[in-house]
């Protein structure tokens, strides 16, 4: 643990999921409707930096990794390794979690002590603590904290560096994986950097939870090597990678008090009988060959790659029942199969494997992390199993694509995918709370400098319609989902009232224009048109705006890393570049990184085409807070400019800018937004300005008066997730409906969630038909 199927027709995995979960737009509520299928809907996202101690800098790193809950299901406790503490949340109202403060490990031992896992037994919380001075001197302890007083009532020396803890259903036993993890920068004799073995070897600690007082509890170590350090025959026979250094990682206990422990770096699983402490079975997790996945970090979502005979190297493990085990095959140094598996504990054989389906869920839901394509892809790290209303569910978390997939495990050897739950970055802890119909997901990534903050998210099982997803992709006609992400622009499709276009930006190396069917709920990406240069070769524009011309083809607003790289680009209907229009030198020279962000156009009865663009930030020579709207007369080949007065912000590091422009009758509608997200997001609005009928005259910019059309922030908050920063796409479709969309930044320094908003009719939003 770090602190650090294919479906057919227009029914890609996400579309099928939508039919199963009844997913709809972000503005829908989670009310109960008899007859609808059960589904989990997010009801709250709590940023754990809000639970920091008084006086601590809000930008200081604080995370939520592993969580547990009190027997009544109303107090959640999480580990914060970066803050060297555990935190407490009141979740009595799942839709309004409340911080109850933290307990610093400095009060229990040393300021450098680090909690690695946590669990609750009765009125006590058991905190597993890493106290190691180095990799070669591993140490740790188990602290027992009384919940009512938050006082330590007992502490046990674990004899090594601990990782995870599990409690038996009858609460007679606790089991702790003593990992004694390897140093990834150390080189063992005869090996390479990071190789095994690196002693001392890890083992398992069993805690007998006997008597009414923790003072009566006793520890029983279960060695995974012989007394002289040599390998146990059972581990050798199982083909464990390096049996003298087993490195146990994650533990789970079934109803018969049989412990399963993953040996992640060694690609194996060991079973231990808790009453006797005897190792009953060891088996290798085997290898997987997976095709139809993206294996190159090249800025292209290309699902034609494969990995061959890769060790699964399972991280988390969970018993499905008393026979079958589920593992999240994250991988470590030699492996990772980008999926998860179900093993038969009696034989050690794989009873079911996800193959490429888990990886393809990320693509279908717009959560593919291209930055990780060449490594371990989605990195499924967490797995949990629990029964709700008589149905056994499995939850598998993607560390790198920020989602948790939900499966029906009624038949353990034939899991049925049900839905995807979006999370904040690095979902680590998956905590089912069946007694309250909840699941809590805690995330481990926290970086205030890029507004990525760790959180605990809560999801409620019910018969309402989940807010996520709002967009999924169909397949390409051959069973492969269409890759998509970074949708920062929208345009109506001429002649097709329920269709929209969007365009990818510099997050990908090759630009594509995507077709979105908005008649469906969720909306469906149904096609992708590659954009090409004048020579017909694929091209990568930083396209921040798209407009589909009624006379055929497209206009793109292309932003540049430098001012002179901003330009208008005209494409034909096949996506081939036919014209490039640079900005005037005086305008381009005054722009920094934030340039063209939207494009729209009108064509009058005489055929005269006027193109309008929105510039995101101020030109250096213009007044502060005034940005430009550009008017390009295609026939004359001339530019003229108008001013737009932005709102203001007092938040350090924040700025206000424009993100989109579209024609609404005789007016222009623009998106004005700040660059804040999460609980700090403050300005996400659509304004209109009158559309001048003639070119601007020379002289000072004429500032167009603006009128508020709609504040979009409430709709973004209705998702109950991390409020997205980049509200960037807006259009009025041929059906008269107004649509908006957020840019997910291709899951880079962002949660990766895309919110597609149905804002209502143009008459409702803009006061006109």
Automatic annotation (TrEMBL):
The keyword Signal applies. PANTHER family: MESENCHYME-SPECIFIC CELL SURFACE GLYCOPROTEIN (PTHR46928:SF1). Residues 1-28 form the signal peptide. SUPFAM superfamilies: YVTN repeat-like/Quinoprotein amine dehydrogenase. It comes from Micromonospora krabiensis. Residues 336-419 form the Choice-of-anchor I domain. Residues 483-745 form the Phytase-like domain. This is Esterase-like activity of phytase. Keywords: Signal. Coiled coil: none annotated. The keyword Signal applies. It holds the Pfam family Phytase-like. InterPro entries: Choice_anch_I, Mesenchyme-surface_protein, Phytase-like_dom, Quino_amine_DH_bsu, TAT_signal, WD40/YVTN_repeat-like_dom_sf.
